[in-house]
Amino acid sequence: MACSTCSSSGGIPSGCGNNGSCGTHSCGKLTVFNWLTDMALPEGQEPCWWVEVRFKNGRKDFYYNAHQLHFYVGNAVAVETGTGGYDLGSVSLTGELVRVQMRKKAADTDVAAARKLLRKATERDLEKWEAARAKEGEWMTACRQMAVQHGLDMKVSDVEAQGDAFKAFFYYTAEERVDFRQLVRDLSAALGIRVEMRHIGARQEAGRLGGLGICGRELCCSTWLTDFRAVTTSAARYQSLSLNPQKLAGQCGKLKCCLNFELDQYAEAMSIFPEGKKIKTEKGEAEMLKMDILRGMMWFAYRDDRATWIALKAEDAKAMMEMNARGEKPAALEDKQVVEHRVKADDFVEIVAPMEDSLTRFDKPKKKNRSFNKRGNRPPQKKA
Fold this sequence. Notes:
four-stranded antiparallel beta sheet, GMP Synthetase, Chain A, domain 3, 384 residues, alpha+beta, five-stranded antiparallel beta sheet
């Protein structure tokens, strides 16, 4: 993900010169626009020396700027890891908005126990980090082969190399608990680095790998979605969707997260609909055949005339069912019928000329070659 201004390529942005006030929001996943960047601090207030740093696949963390260096969004920096060595990332947020983000994510603000932001990354640091990232595909292939050799039921989906090329994190998914201790020892000896295995869920895997959804847009989990809430089949039932697992499942194999996006709206719209599906009238008993939740419409048909559908508003159908509950019967459904306007073929007006609507109007007519006759011979030249 990158904008054409800074020409970033998923790694360290080259810098577009906007210094944190970029309006395209395209330099990385889950970008936060710093709307406080040009506002002065109140008098006497200490500036926030915490910095938000982004790593591969949108992973973010907060580091304390102990040396009180000045950074811009997009600067490559070296940070502490807590387990020895250092890691490289890019600054994603600075200033007072970091304080708000830390409060939102319930991050620890203890300076004594915080990991420090060491320095700006040098050219040598970037070269070592890029060389380590170039080996990630090779390391993942080796890990998958060793997992098959050890008979482990796990799927290695991604590898993230540490900035100092001293350690690598292998992300995997598994249905059950996996004993990978021997795998870690063999893999560390073969690659010559420290290895750490991290278990992730199917939704987190899809978010790290990315892709396109059935809507044609990038996956929500890889662009902006930060929390993965439980999705049940009741969300599809509320929205009158077909319970087809192939259509309701996303790239992760689970139910799509977008089923929850409009669930509250559908639940509110469903409050005006009656619970029953039959109406008894003096003309006969009718059954519900179809309903449109957002329009608040229901279609009924008499048992002896199933081909004729009668459209009713949800409020009117609910009132008729309440009459049936009291032992009363309405005269007929036609008294409350909603007449729908159907567009006829005569309503369309041809506003384009037939010649302009022709598919071959841009084809140029072929010119006949008169230099040859029907037999393919050149006609005799006339003498002057």
